[in-house]
Specification:
single chain, 240 residues, alpha+beta, 2,3-Dihydroxybiphenyl 1,2-Dioxygenase, domain 1, eight-stranded mixed sheet, 20% helix, 35% strand, VOC_core, Glyas_Bleomycin-R_OHBP_Dase, VOC domain-containing protein, Glyoxalase_6
Length: 240
């Protein structure tokens, strides 16, 4: 049995503001009553929530992970871009070429995301949240496929992608060369053991797959912080 992807966590200087931005872009619902941060609940087949966690550290450098949002037509792409800009996004240049057909934006705290043009064959069967596009090695793609029990849907030229058997966005890794990692990633995954499972047993399984144990997280004893083979942090939560 494998662990479950519970949430994509985003460190935020202003969690409520950032949650409202992404709720407006994605059309997701805000969850209340959280002890730490703000969460958005998907209204589609995404399968995991987004949690915005408070931090006093400002963003520095490009994130290793970003959303690719899909479009059904040129007009749909323009609407998504206009809605995002109206909510507080801005255009950014990360070296993209005009012929690539996507628009690169940053949210109010500088987190990058792309609005992909229509006709993208790779994301054709995905919803509005088409992919979590990651900077990462082939090895880390294999690791996450085993960790989550999600099959590989792409494995060519050291680029990999996985997807839940139940649908939702793909998670992709672009292969080497990797961007240098400076400090803690601003985005990370929260995982939970399978139903009836034990956290320490799951931690041991992930270590056997190539992860390393980093320590306890901000929640104290309710989570274990780990790192995947590329050094990206993630948390394994205590079952509730």
């Amino acid at each position: 049995m494998t662990c479950h992807l519970v949430a994509l966590c985003v460190d935020a200087y202003d969690p409520l503001r950032l949650a409202r931005f992404w709720a407006g872009v994605l059309g997701w619902e805000t969850a209340g009553g959280l002890r730490d941060g703000v969460a958005l609940l998907p209204v589609d087949d995404t399968g995991f929530r987004i949690r915005f966690l408070p931090t006093r550290e400002r963003k520095a450098g490009q994130n290793r992970m970003h959303f690719d949002l899909t479009s059904t037509s040129p007009e749909d792409q323009r609407r998504t871009v206009a809605r995002s800009l109206g909510l507080g996004a801005r255009h950014i240049d990360i070296g993209q070429r005009p012929e690539e057909g996507h628009v690169v934006l940053a949210d109010p705290e500088g987190n990058e995301f792309c609005v992909i043009g229509p006709g993208n064959a790779f994301l054709a069967d995905c919803g509005f949240v088409g992919a979590l596009a990651c900077d990462g090695s082939q090895e880390v793609g294999y690791f996450w496929s085993e960790a989550l029990g999600w099959p590989l849907v792409w494995d060519q030229d050291q680029e990999t992608a996985i997807r839940s058997p139940y649908g939702g966005p793909k998670i992709t890794w672009g292969g080497p060369p990797l961007m240098p990692k400076t400090g803690k990633n601003r985005l990370h995954f929260d995982l939970a053991p399978p139903a009836g499972g034990d956290r320490e047993t799951e931690v041991d399984r992930l270590v056997a797959l190539g992860a390393t144990r980093v320590g306890a997280g901000r929640g104290g004893t309710d989570r274990v912080v780990m790192a995947d083979p590329d050094g990206n942090e993630f948390c394994v939560l205590t079952p509730r």
